[in-house]
Amino acid sequence: MILTFDELPKLRGSVSMVDGAFDPLHAGHVEYFRAAAALGRPLLCNVASDRYVRTKHPPLLPDWQRALVIDALRDIAYTHVNEHDTEAVLEQLRPYAYVKGKDWEGRLPPQQVEICGRHGIRICFLDTVRDSSTRLLRAYAEGMQDRQYAQGMQDRQVGDGLQAVPNVQGVPNQSGEVHRK
User: Fold this and answer.
1) What is the residue-averaged pLDDT of the chain?
2) pLDDT tens figures, 72-128
3) Cβ distance 9 to 44 under 8 Å?
């Protein structure tokens, strides 16, 4: 379900929040979402607006399309396009937990840390960083198609890195998948 900024307070304290541009969306993001959802709370994905993405690169997909695609993923319960800044969303939503990749440990903006401390929002860092949208875009722009990356992805089994994520909610189907939506 895609929410507006004004709808966020109704979820206060009941969801975990992930945050990013997700442009382009890649397998590492899916691992991040699964691990965050496995923490046991419904997951809200705060998707960066085109305005923010343009500070890094031209958007590959517009924010509304990124939100629509991410919202369709089974590990995501709610999606929000962030037209403000993350600090404003943390203040408005006050999630149970703010979940970031381990690469953010020690690098979160001080204002985000202060907001989380003031509202009792848990900060959780997950070791699911597998790739970078920036690196993928750079490789594409340079016309490389990065043979090492392609070979690494061929060598890697789908689901590697996800097997360690505990099944914390739902009942597995015959293939062992848990559907959270």
Assistant:
1) 82
2) 999 999 999 999 999 999 999 999 999 998 888 999 999 999 999 999 999 999 987
3) no
d(CA 167, CA 117): 29
Question: In 3D, which of 72, 78, 80, 73 has the Cα closest to residue 20?
Answer: 80
Domain 2-155 in this protein, CATH class: alpha beta
In this model, does residue 63 exceed pLDDT 90?
Answer: yes
Asked whether 46 and 74 are in contact (CB, 8 A), the reply is no
Q: What is the DSSP string of the chain?
A: -EE-GGGGGGGTTT-EEEEE--SS--HHHHHHHHHHHTTSS-EEEEEEPHHHHTTTS--SS-HHHHHHHHHTSTT-SEEEEESS-HHHHHHHH--SEEEEEGGGTTTS-HHHHHHHHHHT-EEEEE------HHHHHHHHHTT---HHHHHHHHHSPTTTTTTTS---SS---TTS-----
By residue count, the chain amounts to 181
> Which residue, among 43, 113, 120, has the nearest Cα to 75 in the 3D structure?
43
CB atoms within 10 A of CB 164: 10
Asked whether 91 and 5 are in contact (CB, 8 A), the reply is no
User: Could you tell me the residue ranges of all domains in the chain?
Assistant: 2-155
Contacts of 21 (CB under 8 A, 6+ apart): 47, 48, 52, 53, 56, 66, 133
